[in-house]
């Protein structure tokens, strides 16, 4: 059998690979590539294979770098089945629509500029209609169940976000394990990742192939201090967070700190319509929770603090937060501070040293979030310069990815000798590759378009 790698090779986005037995091509993941605008356009709009020939697409989880190009795949003729967990399918109902909305808005903005220059308009990557049509092709497969049709795919817990799985694929007498994105043990809300064993080849993510995280409890302690400081100074704590995963973890953490009386009960706002919808999906899928959260869910019915925390959909309500005085916590998207409501909150708060900004997720190069992490003292927001006077705290511990230690331990426990590394920036993937090679593994990090025979 042969594996073709078409994305997330020596980078973290655009996940997409094909396994074929010579007769059929089975697709795994269909992620959006994110990077420089021109390259992203080119890669997302064109498929290196005929989508009409693919009978099945399997998904590890709902993040856009793994599933965000599905509407475009369907637009280009895919008519097979898209197989994912019920929670992943529910999340994608909202996330693909949200993504379509962003692409439509982007195209609208670009077309305004093109019109002024007398250029013809461009089409959005995909539209709301495309996103809605693609939802018809989904078919659920539960955790620990096996799909069979001349080959088999089994889903096991990945502990990364709600509904996330690792895949064990059997085809042509060979067994392949794919970690998808691998979570960390002891993260709030989710179960710990399960272990793939006894496969011929393990395809593993390497996002944090070089770096280590502190224990999550350290992040709880830091957040406790930051919120107490806001209470004293009557400041605002602004937390940019991805709508899926990080927002719910931060809410859960604040909820627990209040319950344990470690922080006062100050107002907390989750200001993002997508986060609000996604949090409702979390409430519909308690089967994905770890024991502690499940107990909280059964006993209180409210691990995400619906009673205590205000979820904001309406734009006017969102704007009203700008005129309100602290202390308060505002959690809002986008996670890398590139667009969305978070920009308004940063613009209004960043110049006042009583406030604070808390970064809880990975910030890609050239984003506003990355500039804040790197301690820049002057940043542009909506094209205007702002002085950064509010302190910026970075709590990487909320990251939903395994770190270097977790990944090395995972490989050692798998008993697998042949390892293929994907989903990592060059530095991270090389650091992990070197260490695994030193330990005697047959390890390889493919480049885009590479084919590997098993
Ligand atoms: Zn992910």
Descriptive report:
- It is a single chain.
- The protein is of the alpha/beta class and 454 residues long.
- It folds into 2 domains: 2-211 and 400-453, Metallo-beta-lactamase, Chain A (4-Layer Sandwich), CATH 3.60.15.10; 216-398, Rossmann fold (3-Layer(aba) Sandwich).
- Helices cover 34% and strands 21% of the residues.
- The protein is built from 14 helices and 22 strands.
- The longest helix is centred in the N-terminal third of the chain and has 31 residues, at 86-116.
- The radius of gyration is 22 Å and the shape is globular.
- The protein starts with a strand and ends with a strand.
- The chain binds zinc ion (ZN).
- Zinc ion binds at residues 61, 63, 160, 181.
Number of domains: 2
Q: Under the CATH scheme, which architecture of the largest domain would be assigned?
A: 4-Layer Sandwich
Strand portion: 15-25%
Strand order of the largest sheet: 6-5-4-3-2-1-22
| Radius of gyration, in angstroms, nearest whole number | 22 Å
CATH topology of the largest domain: Metallo-beta-lactamase, Chain A
Form type: globular
Name the CATH class of the largest domain: Alpha Beta
């Amino acid at each position: 059998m042969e594996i073709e790698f078409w994305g997330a090779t020596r980078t973290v986005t655009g996940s997409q690979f094909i396994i074929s037995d010579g007769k059929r091509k089975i697709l795994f993941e269909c992620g959006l590539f994110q990077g420089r605008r021109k390259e992203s356009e080119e890669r997302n709009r064109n498929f290196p294979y005929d989508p009409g020939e693919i009978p099945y697409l399997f998904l590890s989880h709902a993040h856009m770098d793994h599933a965000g190009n599905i509407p475009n795949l369907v637009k280009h003729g895919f008519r097979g089945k898209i197989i994912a967990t019920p929670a992943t399918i529910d999340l994608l109902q909202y996330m693909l629509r949200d993504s379509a909305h962003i692409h439509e808005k982007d195209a609208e903005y670009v077309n305004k500029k093109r019109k002024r220059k007398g250029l013809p308009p461009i089409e959005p990557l995909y539209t709301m209609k495309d996103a809605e049509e693609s939802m018809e092709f989904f078919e659920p497969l539960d955790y620990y169940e096996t799909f069979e049709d001349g080959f088999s795919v089994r889903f096991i817990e990945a502990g990364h976000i709600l509904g996330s799985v690792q895949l064990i694929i059997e085809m042509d007498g060979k067994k392949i394990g794919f970690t998808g994105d691998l979570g960390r043990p002891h993260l709030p809300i989710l179960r710990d990742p399960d272990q793939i064993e006894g496969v011929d080849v393990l395809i593993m993510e390497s996002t944090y192939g070089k770096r280590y995280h502190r224990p999550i409890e350290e992040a709880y302690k830091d957040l406790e201090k930051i919120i107490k400081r806001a209470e004293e100074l009557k400041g605002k704590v602004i937390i940019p967070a991805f709508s899926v995963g990080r927002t719910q973890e931060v809410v859960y953490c604040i909820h627990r700190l209040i319950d344990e009386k470690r922080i006062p009960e100050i107002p907390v706002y989750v200001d993002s319509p997508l986060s609000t919808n996604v949090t409702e999906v979390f409430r519909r899928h308690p089967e994905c929770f770890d024991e502690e959260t499940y107990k909280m869910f059964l006993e209180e019915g409210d691990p995400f603090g619906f009673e205590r925390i205000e979820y904001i959909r309406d734009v006017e309500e969102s704007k009203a937060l700008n005129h309100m005085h602290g202390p308060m916590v505002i959690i809002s998207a986008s996670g890398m501070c590139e667009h969305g409501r978070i920009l308004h909150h940063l613009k209004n708060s960043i110049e006042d040293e009583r406030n604070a900004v808390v970064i809880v997720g990975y910030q890609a190069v050239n984003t506003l979030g990355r500039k804040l992490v790197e301690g820049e003292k002057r940043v542009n927001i909506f094209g205007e310069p702002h002085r950064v006077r509010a302190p910026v705290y970075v709590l990487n511990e909320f990251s939903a990815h395994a770190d270097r230690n977790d990944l090395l331990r995972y490989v050692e426990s798998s008993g697998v000798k042949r390892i293929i590394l994907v989903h990592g920036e060059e530095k991270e993937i090389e650091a992990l590759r070197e260490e695994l090679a030193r330990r005697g593994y047959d390890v390889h990090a493919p480049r885009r378009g590479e084919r590997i025979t098993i």
